[in-house]
Design brief:
two-stranded antiparallel ribbon; 10 strands; 327 residues; mainly alpha; single chain
Length: 327
């Protein structure tokens, strides 16, 4: 089978985004990204390999079921430990805008209204997994962390959003044919950020436990959908399923972290229950299905990963490219 090769675009998603946010971009009360105010470098070009034809009839995995436990009483049926807040499904907006970003950065032509992700083994991978989003919000709901704690770690997502917008604005000058799609992405990020901050404020204003759980459910739904944490597509079988509830980085050119990947490593180690996903041989497995030796990331980044804790999975290198959906 011959696979058509595509020319690389001028911009790759998330090139060292912590340096790309404009000076003074963060509002009061939100931590400034590292190197804020530094000169904005041109994003690197990139090349992606084709992937073998995915198996027909594949389906996406369902979220993990609650853990069953057995009652101590003899003969009692198994009970289920239910989480305080159930995992929501992605909204349609998540898939729509992830496809727009994918089309731009991967020079693809997927219909965002009918992407058919399972036909080509595609998913929208988290950087910070749902399990850790929920666990950290519940620390606040249960009174184990303060409002300042909640704002500190969730501000990381806001910082990544500002870096994403900087990248997309730069792209408008180099890919004028896609300017309308980039405008849609920028507007979506801005409106989602406004909604997220409003829901966080509502959560912090809740008084009773019942009010906090209700507000936390709405906040988590928006946070789970938030573009910086789920900004694009990646391989499902072989990578996303295996990574499951671990931190999942995207690394560019074997050394540069994408916007939310930078912010993930800025977080305190206890924010991740299982650590950062690696292969069985200890290489970082990226959201795009590549493997990256820790040594190639530099000593500073390797230390940040070691602080959180690398966690081995059965994920493996799988060249991800959607071009096979038409073959």
């Amino acid at each position: 089978m011959t696979v058509k090769q595509f020319s690389p675009p001028a911009v790759r998603w998330g090139s060292n985004a912590s340096q790309m946010a404009p000076a003074g971009a963060c509002s009061a009360g939100v931590a400034q990204p590292r190197n804020a105010g530094a000169a904005v470098p041109a994003p690197p070009t990139y090349w992606r390999r084709p992937v073998a034809q995915p198996k027909a009839g594949s389906v996406t995995s369902a979220p993990p079921s609650p853990t069953p436990i057995r009652n101590r009483a003899a003969g009692a049926p198994p009970q289920t430990v239910q989480p305080m807040i159930s995992r929501p499904n992605f909204s349609k907006d998540v898939y729509h805008h992830a496809v727009l970003a994918h089309n731009y950065f991967q020079v693809d032509k997927i219909d965002p209204k009918d992407p058919k992700l399972t036909d080509s083994n595609a998913a929208v991978p988290h950087r910070m997994p749902w399990a850790d989003l929920r666990r950290n919000v519940e620390l606040y709901v249960n009174g184990k962390e303060t409002k300042a704690d909640l704002e500190r770690w969730t501000d990381r997502f806001i910082e990544a959003a500002k870096s994403d917008i900087s990248i997309l604005k730069l792209g408008k000058s180099t890919k004028k044919a896609m300017s309308k799609d980039l405008d849609k992405l920028i507007a979506y990020i801005n409106s989602s950020t406004t909604d997220l901050l409003d829901l966080r404020k509502r959560l912090c204003s809740a008084k009773t436990k019942k009010e906090k759980i209700a507000a936390a459910s709405l906040f988590l739904k928006k946070l789970n959908d938030y573009f910086p944490n789920v900004p694009d597509l990646g391989p499902h079988r072989g990578v996303n399923i295996q990574v499951s509830d671990r931190g999942h980085l995207n690394v560019l050119n074997k050394r540069d972290l994408s916007p939310m990947s930078e912010r993930v490593l800025d977080m305190s180690p206890h924010r991740f229950k299982k650590g950062i996903a690696t292969t069985q041989t200890g290489e970082i497995v990226t959201t795009f299905g590549e493997t990256v030796p820790l040594a190639s990331l530099g000593k500073a980044t390797k230390k940040r990963i070691d602080d959180i804790g690398p966690d081995k999975t059965n994920a493996h290198s799988i060249a991800f490219d959607r071009k096979n959906r038409w073959q």
